[in-house]
Amino acid sequence: MATLEVTTKALAETMGAIQIGVLFNSFIFGILFMQWVTYFTSKFKDSWPIRALVYWVIAVDVFHVALSWQYVWMYTVDQFGDFATLYAAHWQYDSSPIFIVVTAVPTQMFLVNRTRKMLGRQHPILANGIFALVTVLGIIQLVLGLYESFSLLITVKSTAQYAQFIPIAVAWESVAIAADMTVMLSFIATLVYRRTGFKQTDWMLFNLMLVAVECALPVTLFTIGHISAVISSPTTGMHQLFAWSQARLYSNTLFVNLNSRNKLRKGQDTTHGTSGNVQEVNFLTMDRHGINSRSNRPQVHIDVIREEHYAMDSISNKDSDPDFKPVAHV
């Protein structure tokens, strides 16, 4: 009877946790697929580094998700009924930190680079300082994640040995949280600073802030959940509830930020069901103090600046948009 209870508990903590983790990972992958469709059908004229990042993230996602399915197949088909499998370390999971860091670090660098562009004209030292901080955190995160994964792949044979790698895992995930929070908070603070007083512009800034929070919150919660599970139950599969989905959440962060330009380029009027021309705003070229000054003279801001200088890398595709017109804010 005692053996049955132990086996049942082991099944719940390992097989149950793995299946739920992989199923949720597959669910997020489905959402990501729709994000890919939206991105490619929107025909954004992004620069080659962004396109390279997009294809890299897609390739990593497809391979990692396929690996997770093969992992479940191993448990439920190939080695079904072999309870020794529950206590063995498997390369499919031990390689997960590689997939997480090679997705997380480029995404973090892309996001903090937007902050550097928006803040760089008026505060270049601060902008470069934030960028340098996230770069250092990204390098540390990458090194720790790769070290963690290769150490597991080379030395670990059973789940009982996972406990000795808890300090490295905690250090790696803590640095990841620090990088994510730095990216999010610096981006939101920059957007708050760039408020102009114009309803249209501030609406766009507010939506960008919402995107930043909505993207950062799931990633942070899953990272905290992963750390907590690794510390409390390193020899079971409980930490796999969170680990399989972490890379997908970073990918979702990237594509949500890229695809948010669809909404921003249509302007606030389209959200209320009214038609109108696309209204363009270039945050990099705005004179914040000039726009917000309270002088009695009328102030005009005409946005005819090329959009590739905007931190979002071209909100609209002017070359393919026959209705595009410069907009004057009075």
Kindly describe this structure.
This protein is an all-alpha fold and 330 residues long. The chain folds into 2 domains: 2-270; 276-329, no CATH class. Helix content is 68%, strand content 2%. It is built from 9 helices and 2 strands. It has a two-stranded antiparallel sheet. The longest helix has 41 residues, at 2-42. Residues 1-5, 268-320 and 324-330 have low confidence and may be disordered. Keywords: Membrane, Transmembrane, Transmembrane helix.
Short description:
This is DUF6534 domain-containing protein. This protein has 330 residues and is mainly α.
SSE topology sketch:
Elements: H1 2-42, H2 48-78, H3 91-94, H4 96-120, H5 124-155, H6 166-193, H7 199-232, H8 240-264, H9 288-292, E1 301-303, E2 327-329
Antiparallel strand pairs: 1-2
Helix pairs in contact: 1-2, 1-8, 2-4, 2-8, 4-5, 4-6, 4-8, 5-6, 6-7, 7-8
Pfam family, one: DUF6534
Protein name: DUF6534 domain-containing protein
InterPro entries: DUF6534
Distance between the termini: 80 Å
Adjacency order of strands in the biggest sheet: 1-2
Q: Give the uncertain stretches in residue-range form.
A: 1-5, 268-320, 324-330
Strand content: under 5%
Structural class: mainly alpha
Oligomerization state of this entry? single chain
Total DSSP E strands: 2
Q: What is the N-to-C succession of helices and strands? A: HHHHHHHHHEE
Q: Helix fraction?
A: 55-70%
Key words describing this protein structure:
330 residues; two-stranded antiparallel ribbon; 9 helices; transmembrane helix; transmembrane; membrane; DUF6534 domain-containing protein
